């Protein structure tokens, strides 16, 4: 089996490593078969896509709609645009989570802004008819709980894309471009331990009032979120 490539953008080691560990756990891959590249730390290396089964883009604190951006974010965005040019043209297997939905959405011409941001917590995600028929969502219930926490979101589905899932406060929770490129607004990799780690690491990043951290952790710690990781399992099973 060819390995999968995971592209990461988190500069905070604790959050970055926790995300990678979660991806390994839910995909069933080991470090040799899920090769991580941390884009925030160095330019994207030359990639031979023929050497990979698919590409996974993790989340991160970059905001596509931010009025000012760091030099690192501008570089990462430019590198991802160039890569997505090729991925979309080839209809190459891709799964973007949270930051990935905005990245693919912007690339495909949709507006990403703060209209449909969601506070940190659990939301019910409902599959569309197309979602219920999609192989990457095989075995998922029609509605399932998922962890979210994002300041911005796609305002609409990109032209020509297929809407796969929505939530009450965020109409675009998951879509597919062509046959093999997917993006989710919710986090398919997160369990309770994972979201608690993110809440602590990103206390001062504007996702919530910092003084409410303990309250938010107490609330999410009561949640039982079990279905979203199946998306990662299905994605790898389909394209391995």
TrEMBL record:
<keyword id="KW-0808">Transferase</keyword>
<keyword id="KW-0315">Glutamine amidotransferase</keyword>
<dbReference type="InterPro" id="IPR017926">
    <property type="entry name" value="GATASE"/>
</dbReference>
<protein>
    <submittedName>
        <fullName>Glutamine amidotransferase</fullName>
    </submittedName>
</protein>
<feature type="domain" description="Glutamine amidotransferase">
    <location>
        <begin position="49"/>
        <end position="190"/>
    </location>
</feature>
<dbReference type="InterPro" id="IPR029062">
    <property type="entry name" value="Class_I_gatase-like"/>
</dbReference>
<dbReference type="InterPro" id="IPR044992">
    <property type="entry name" value="ChyE-like"/>
</dbReference>
<dbReference type="GO" id="GO:0016740">
    <property type="term" value="F:transferase activity"/>
</dbReference>
<dbReference type="GO" id="GO:0005829">
    <property type="term" value="C:cytosol"/>
</dbReference>
<dbReference type="Pfam" id="PF00117">
    <property type="entry name" value="GATase"/>
</dbReference>
